[in-house]
Design goal:
Helix content: under 10%
Radius of gyration: 27 Å
Number of strands: 20
Distance between the termini: 51 Å
Shape: elongated
């Protein structure tokens, strides 16, 4: 019979189904784990009785009762939705296609590997990280307006190199207080959601005397131009920076108005769907998931 195993076994036909994160066709050690619940079917001797199948376990699969010297066709099916077959690699320890041929018991019959790839898992070896910063005071007050709020740096940056490697993409006067970030790769656009934080100013884009708690901004990573992308309705209300008592960069403030609104008004995090069609956020005021 064909067995699903969680460890290496003695078998005539065996191998591993693994997650090929970097799509190089090779299992790169423990960082690329096994994929369970795929169906592996072995056909041999061209008869209906000479068919055995199983689902993969956490690490491997193995067929122990196929007669030695028998030519076998293996088929891998049931790939999870959104996953794809990884690229083919000719090396014995690499990745074959979803249909492979092998002679049971022959050399290489215990390395019938199959890589599964989920494209959005991939990033370059040293990706760029973008984080928002918070600035004390009114967002458009002299001394605060030009303070950096969006910083970008390499993942490999450390305490001694982060300063020289950092790039500042925007300032308080263009974004105000923001928290959620989402990046759309094909357009190189970064999206930022307004966030209710004490002592930190929000923009009042429509000059109605209220901070824009529902604002989502679009930042072009190439040009650093910031525009108001959309505004989520019913995200709560808060007085503008002046009414909250926010002033300069080093000026103290009590900001009692914001005390009971933190975490209960404005927007939470942002995420973009894998196909790039939808932008998701949380309306903290209504406690709803919003799809844009």
């Amino acid at each position: 019979m064909l067995l699903s195993m969680g460890q290496l076994v003695q078998a005539q036909v065996s191998g591993t189904v693994f997650r090929d994160f970097n799509a190089n066709g090779t299992k790169d050690g423990p960082n690329e784990p096994g994929v369970s619940s795929l169906t592996v079917t072995a056909y041999y001797n061209a008869t209906s009785s000479s068919v055995v199948s199983t689902t993969t376990g956490a690490y491997s699969f193995a067929a122990a009762t196929i007669p030695s010297g028998t030519r076998v066709r293996l088929e891998f099916t049931g790939i999870p939705t959104g996953d794809f077959s990884g690229p083919f690699a000719a090396a014995a320890a690499g990745n074959g296609t979803s249909v492979q041929f092998v002679t049971a018991g022959a050399a290489g019959s215990n390395t019938i590997n199959f890589g599964v790839n989920y494209p959005t898992d991939y990033c370059q070896a040293n990706p760029l990280v973008v984080l928002p910063c918070f600035v004390n005071g009114a967002a458009t007050t002299t001394g605060v307006t030009n303070q950096n709020t969006i910083v970008r740096f390499p993942y490999s940056a450390n305490s001694s190199s982060s300063g020289s490697l950092s790039t500042y993409l925007s300032q308080s006067g263009k974004t105000g207080s923001v928290y959620g970030t989402a990046y759309k790769q094909d357009t190189r656009k970064l999206y930022l959601s307004a966030f209710m934080k004490r002592h930190t100013g929000l923009l009042d884009n429509d000059n109605n005397g209220l901070g824009d708690l529902g604002a989502i901004y679009e930042l072009d990573a190439a040009t650093t131009v910031v525009t108001l992308f959309t505004t989520v309705t019913n995200a709560g209300t808060v007085a503008n920076d002046a009414a909250r008592g926010l002033t300069g960069l080093t000026s103290p403030s009590r900001d009692a108005t914001a005390f009971g609104l933190v975490g209960k008004a404005g927007l939470g995090d942002l995420d973009i769907s894998d196909d790039g069609k939808y932008l998701y956020t949380i309306n903290l005021n209504t406690r709803e998931l919003i799809r844009i």
